[in-house]
Amino acid sequence: MTTLTLAKALNAGLRRAMEQDGKVVLLGEDIGRLGGVFRITEGLQKDFGEQRVLDTPLAESGIVGTAVGLALRGYRPVVEIQFDGFVYPAYDQIVCQVAKLRTRSGGQRALPIVIRIPYGGGIGAVEHHSESPEAQFAHTPGLKVVTCSNPVDGYWMLQQAIAHDDPVVFLEPKRLYHSTRAELDPALEPGPLFASRVVRSGTDATLIAYGPTVQTCLAAADQAAEEGRSLEVVDLRTISPLDLGPVAESVRRTGRAVVVHEAHVSFGVGAEVAAAITEQCFFSLEAPVLRVCGYDTPYPLSRVEHEWLPTVDRVLDAVDRAVGF
Amino acid sequence: MSDLIQLLTADGVRVEHPDVAFSPDPSLLDTYGDEPGVLRALLRDMTLVRRFDVEATALQRHGELGLWPSSLGQEAAQIGAGRALAPGDYVFPTYRDHGIAWCRRIDPVDLLGVFRGTDHVGWDPEEKRYAPVTIVIGAHTLHAVGYALGALHDGAVGTGDASRDTAVLACFGDGATSQGDVNEAMVFAASYHVPVVFFLQNNHWAISEPVTRQSRIPLVQRAAGFGFPGYRVDGNDVLATYAVVQRALEHARTGQGPVLVEAVTYRMGAHTTTDDPTRYRTDDDLEVWRRRDPIDRLARYLRTTGGADDAWFAALEAEADELGADVRARCHALPDPSPLVSFDATYAEITPTLAAQRAEVAALLDGTEVAR
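YS: structure for the whole thing
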């Protein structure tokens, strides 16, 4: 058993996927000798060669479009987009091509592509380096969207996404790359990929989070416990398809729900979750489903990003409102 | 090279080119006997594809198709390129490449589904080695490059084994050369030295925008900027197009990297049936190109050289009539798809949300109560 950061766990997951299937190839900018700007692919080109780990020209649409052709040829490409805000030049390829080629081939062709995107803020970065585009991809039929909140999930979910036959947008919370550690036992069997999970039990309200905000919610639950309030935390893990089972079960018990994500609040994942909870748990709800999210501005300057990101205080304030409703 | 390669003039006269000769593949000679036989076969291909295209345009006018992109005038470019393909080559087509589809032995009626709204693809892309059509201009040229990269990594290039070596034909038009994806495709192709032939049909119009809006220099010159060879061929000359594309495919297949072929042709019809070319181009312009018609010139050559006689032309005309009637009848008979097809073709495994939505539609179709 080893203790790994999320970055190292993702690296180990990629390595194992490449060892197990010779058709897995990686494409991205600076992922070869440099090992990627976050070092997620460190050492892989050295061990698997330049045909398995391709340093690409600096063209995101080109990277994703080339991956489509490789997939049609029988490969399982794993694409690295360097930063969230750089994915938009590839948006057409992802939304119109990757997402639709299965339908366009009359269901004849699977398109097993994983698009890895380091996402989210909190690292003091410059413009285009802190975005949360999950809703844009989750709103696209044909794509699946998942995100991990800890090294163990990162290790397993990445391998499961690569083995999956549908295209998966795999969002990696970049501020957790080096800040979280966990013990990883590669002999343990993982749970299913497209499943949400209760990561902390509680009775007074349910916090629903994914990716970077899971840690925020766990910290909020710790603080609430000191004040005698018991919060349950659900890690969505899969955004599309949304696995509402554990969420609904939790909300039926607690009667209160707060959805927490970094992405802009309007038309976001929180809206979808709130609507689904309302449909399924209407008679169990003691309060409206509340959202603690990023504001509807472009991501702010990094010196003030802490005012924009959901914080423990903002989460607890929402819980207070839900309980006092 | 940016001079226009030509082997058959608009008047139907054979001419020589210092670098390029028409030498049909042995398999074509085996099938059609001799060179006049091959030329008759090419003329037959062009004639039948044109008839199909005219019928499809008429079907749209009768409300049987939602839209039709005509290939009228581009038959030589498409048949020349299509007949130059080896069985193992793979095509990433545009929505206008009916002639190349014909050469891949795709039933022309199967091309209508996309435009009638009955099917996304009417053929098996793997069996025909002809990808589903992409409506977004130029996006598929990247797929061609990725596929070619895969072929290269599979060792299916430059082995000398004709059954194994693969070239990929990436089709696009002059308008698409302005797209970022086409330029990115060329960067990637050059960078990885992949076996792709960029087959650019310069038909002079991107809907209403003339090619001069896309480029101030001959488009073929772009190849030099990416670092691979480019050939400019008379795309209304089926012999020259065949010869140049054949050479380009061979170049790619043998591991010498990408090639750009600019086939200079003309879209005689509208961009699609939604558009009215009389608003943006003159009859004079059209007349110049009518005199360069790809079918007329080969017919003239075969007549003057005795390669085909009246009886042969009459039989071809009858065959075209028969094809037209057949396409018309079978278009009407194309079945409407089940609405459930959409749910089944979205993911490899249906998701729980989609399964619930599918059940709802299935129940509506059955007229039964929806279980909730």
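YS: worth flagging: The radius of gyration of chain A is 19 Å.
IM: good catch. Also Chain A touches chain B through 47 residues (CB under 8 Å).
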